[in-house]
Amino acid sequence: MYYTSRSGGFHEKTEWLPRPRYFCDFGDKGDNKCFKDFKHIYGGYKIVNSTEYENWPVFDMRWEDLPVEELQSTRKSYKNRLFFKQILKVQNGKNFKVTLSVRSTEVHFLLCDEKDVTSANCYWFIIQGWRGKKTVLRKCNKQIPDVINEYPKTPCKDPVVEIEHPDDYHKVLNWNKWTHLTLEKQGPTLYLRNVENGKSDTIIEYSDEADNIDVKYLLGHTKDTTAYYKLHKHQYLRISQPSEDLTAFSVPEVGVKNQKICFSVMLTACQNCWTTFTTFSLGGGKSEYIERFDVPPSYVSKTLAAEEAIR
Known about the structure:
Layout lengths: L1 E3 L5 E3 L20 H5 L8 E4 L11 H5 L3 E4 L12 E5 L5 E9 L3 E6 L8 E8 H4 L1 E8 L19 E4 L14 E8 L2 E8 L2 E9 L9 E5 L4 E6 L3 E4 L21 E8 L7 E9 L2 E10 L6 E8 L2
Antiparallel strand pairs: 1-2, 3-16, 4-15, 5-14, 6-11, 6-15, 7-8, 7-14, 8-9, 9-10, 11-12, 12-13, 17-20, 18-19
């Protein structure tokens, strides 16, 4: 649930119904409950942040848990100064991909080599700027002003990509729903994409022959009074070697004995890897086979769920 309080603040609250009596999440960076409860995990797996390795958009239950952050037009303490917020410190400035869910009518994303835009070299994406009439990409070398009513000068002000939107243009950004945008850099090429209904549509593709900006920061800005975003940042178990096992024994019986338990696994395997997912229960000194899934080689993430009584 998302709501605005009387004071104007934007809030969110997530609740799962019916409430589970037991819950653990390997992706929860603030809790090692799963590792404590699942007695044996081996095979070279490690927990990683999605922003440092493969990073796909998430639209399952993990999206609900992503925190809502604010972008503002001006600084609270200096109303004549524009506010550029650091969203993410980029680990690999040559190759990366990050997705954000946005609620706004205009939003700016900047990929820069410094946090201070006035002294930084940046790729500057302006999405539905000029009252929704244009989407552009600028390349700026220490020429971005942070004072209201000051504007960039040539060559910063001259877009390297400019898309004009006609009056009947179906706007990507609006206040009525979340819009999912992916920023990606692969070598010298930058992409801005809109992800909707399982499809990814390219808005901007630009190849920078010079490729001379060492991207270290993702910054955000808006011309709206306030905009909201969710950064698709989560954790998952990762391994780079094939033919390894992730095995979990002794699922705790706290509050779930003689009841049903659901396992949900979001799995992405390497291009030529077969994956076997087996569930079984332990009780009375013996192992009881429940079910087995064989997942063929695929790039596509596949959700596997098994539900069975714990004896």
